Amino acid sequence: MKKNKIIFLSIALIVLLIVVLQSVYIVKETEQVVITQFGKPVGKAKTEPGLKFKTPFIQKTNYFEKRYMEWDGDPNQVPTKDKKFIFVDAYARWQITDPLQFFIRMTNERGAQTRLDDILDGETRDYIAAHDLEEAVRSQNRVPASSGATGEMISDSLATISVGRQELQRMILLSANEKAQDLGIVILDFRIKRINYVDEVSAQVYERMKSERFRIADKFRSEGQGEASRINGEKERELKTIQSEAFREAEDIKGKADARAAAIYASVYDQTSASRELYGFLKSMETFETTFDTTTSVILSTDSELYKYLKSMK
Q1: Cα–Cα dist 311/157, whole Å
Q2: Cα separation of 275 and 266, whole Å?
Q3: For residue range 150-182, what is the model confidence (pLDDT) as tens digits?
């Protein structure tokens, strides 16, 4: 009897423990819970953290994330308003704000991701298709750095935009939230992660960009050559000016020197007869030195000044 009693108590304790475990559940800070009974929600969602109770075996807990969650869409091929086919890769952040409504409409987070694919991909396609490519690429109009810079930029980069990428993202976000307002979620943020041309168009775009850059490079090169020619011309002109000034000054100095020498010669010549004789002799010797050598033959008259000195040397 005693043994059976122990077995009965053990079974009772186990059953009680199971009942307690089935009756108690914990809601964490990052979770929110919806209680269902036979598949239908019962009462309000439990969003406050702590220890909670439910009817064991009959009621079931459905846990949902309270934190921000990520949606990362697949790149989709979208035509723009100006008939340019591009791949658009976008992402978003969303949160469950009404767990009860979320459970009724979506059941679980996997279903929410599928529904977000439909909403965000569809809105992205609609808004991109309603605007030109520049509107999805840039957020504001570009202003050239100077008046001469306009010609050095690709014409598409200066196209005027009226909406811009940030505004497109904001409009997609607002429209998507309107369509998701009865799903128990809110889309917190939406961003276009990347935009790229389809393969068929990329090659044409790259070739156009290359030809445009080559044209700009050729223009810069020709302008540089023209500037180099102008600088070289100014250099040659300044060089000739400097050389002519130097030649003029040199000739002026030489003229002054010759005049000074002539004055000295004249002053010496105007001295006494002996000095004049010596001066004449020295000048004649200089003439001999510069005129004659050992192989020179000359014919002089007896009236020549040179003959006079040669005769006296004998």
Answers
A1: 102
A2: 12
A3: 444 444 556 678 888 899 999 999 999 999 989
Distance of CA 273 to the CA centre of its chain: 95
User: What single-letter amino acid sits at 242?
Assistant: I
- Using CA atoms of 175, 179, 181, 186 in order, give the dihedral in degrees to the nearest 10: -60
pLDDT digits (tens, 9 = 90+) for 276-302: 666 667 777 777 677 767 777 767 666
* CB-facing half-sphere around the CA of 45: CA atoms within 13 A: 20
- Please report which residue ranges of the chain form alpha helices under DSSP H: 2-23, 99-106, 109-129, 133-137, 165-179, 199-269, 273-291, 305-313
Nearest in space to 153 (alpha carbons), one of 54, 66, 219, 86: 219
The helix/strand/coil state of 161 is coil
> To 5 degrees, how large is the angle CA 131–CA 134–CA 140?
105
DSSP codes of every residue in 4-30: HHHHHHHHHHHHHHHHHHHHEEEE-TT
For the entire predicted model, the pTM comes to 0.60
Residues 6+ apart with CB under 8 A from 285: 309
